[in-house]
């Protein structure tokens, strides 16, 4: 999925990059002073000067990820968000250079944006998957160059898995994801005689409205037949059929026997007799014998 900036956007990007690269470099003492003013007093002027001075860091980092097909301006914008997060968490008392601390935040913000937007199919969210996504191409290129070949074998994939401490299946998945591209279902077929879109050829396995209505009507009819058939049973037979077949937690023959005060063999006989009554009644009720199997709820 490749995004190409228009001409006006490209000019704006160049102006921003030129301004960022020409910003004066801060001395360490002044940098720490700006960071302290922002941390302690929420001095927005200090924050603005600090961010402007290290916009070049964002531009440099964003440029390293420009080959992922996303607009450079968007990468820079996400990098600036990371830079702001770094400014909010930076501890001047540790006397580190702000650029050293901010680099991690800028890179993480850009990488998270790429993972969210590189593909319509989510690529991965764990630290291991993230590392695999951003290192797979480098390691594959290195292996192919050393071995003088154009593709990976199982041993190569195992090496990548071992170096990045990820599962082999994750390497195989990422290889497949990075080798393919996303296609829109609204894209037209490459056929001069047709303007059809890909989505027009997707089969819909769902029943059509007519089948749905017919099915509902048939279900109501069969339910009524079954209700009438159950009506010819006596109370004991109704209880056996209900507890054995019409509830989620059915009872065993032995459990029913204890409730009815008879043996489980007697329950089995009563159940069989009740079933025969139901089947006979359904046969008499149904005019179309082909519906017989659909109406029965058990053999």
Give your account of this protein's structure:
By secondary structure, this protein is mainly α. The chain folds into three domains: 1-118, Up-down Bundle (Four Helix Bundle (Hemerythrin (Met), subunit A)); 123-183; 209-295, Winged helix-like DNA-binding domain superfamily/Winged helix DNA-binding domain (Arc Repressor Mutant, subunit A, Orthogonal Bundle). Helix content is 67%, strand content 0%. The protein is built from 14 helices and no strands. Helix 4 packs across helix 6 and helix 11 crosses helix 13 (264-285). The chain is elongated. The two termini are 56 Å apart.
Concise description?
Helices cover 67% and strands 0% of the residues. It has helices spanning 7-22, 28-41, 44-53, 55-64, 72-89, 98-117, 127-147, 154-164, 168-179, 209-230, 235-245, 253-260, 264-285, 292-295. The protein is elongated, with a radius of gyration of 35 Å.
């Amino acid at each position: 999925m490749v995004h190409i900036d228009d001409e006006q956007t490209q000019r704006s990007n160049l102006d921003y990059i030129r301004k960022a690269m020409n910003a004066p470099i801060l001395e360490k003492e002044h940098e720490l002073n700006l960071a302290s003013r922002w941390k302690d007093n929420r001095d927005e002027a200090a924050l603005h000067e600090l961010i402007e001075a290290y916009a070049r860091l964002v531009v440099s980092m964003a440029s390293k990820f420009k080959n992922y097909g996303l607009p450079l301006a968007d990468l820079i914008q996400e990098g600036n968000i990371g830079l702001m997060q770094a400014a909010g968490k930076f501890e001047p008392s540790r006397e580190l250079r702000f650029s050293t601390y901010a680099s991690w935040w800028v890179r993480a913000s850009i990488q998270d944006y790429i993972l969210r937007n590189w593909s319509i199919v989510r690529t991965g969210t764990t630290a291991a998957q993230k590392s695999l996504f951003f290192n797979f191409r480098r390691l594959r290129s290195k292996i192919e160059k050393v071995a003088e070949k154009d593709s990976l074998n199982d041993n190569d994939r195992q090496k990548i898995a071992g170096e990045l401490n990820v599962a082999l299946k994750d390497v195989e998945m990422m290889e497949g994801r990075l080798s393919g591209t996303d296609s829109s279902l609204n894209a037209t077929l490459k056929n001069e005689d047709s303007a059809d879109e890909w989505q027009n050829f997707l089969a819909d396995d769902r029943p059509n409205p007519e089948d749905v209505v017919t099915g509902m009507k048939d279900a109501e009819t069969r339910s009524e037949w079954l209700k009438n058939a159950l009506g010819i049973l006596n109370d004991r037979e109704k209880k056996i059929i209900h507890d054995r077949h019409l509830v989620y937690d059915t009872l065993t023959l032995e459990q029913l026997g204890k409730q009815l005060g008879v043996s489980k063999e007697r329950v089995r006989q009563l159940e069989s007799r009740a079933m025969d009554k139901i089947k006979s009644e359904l046969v008499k009720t149904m005019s179309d014998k082909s519906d017989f199997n659909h109406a029965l709820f058990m053999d």
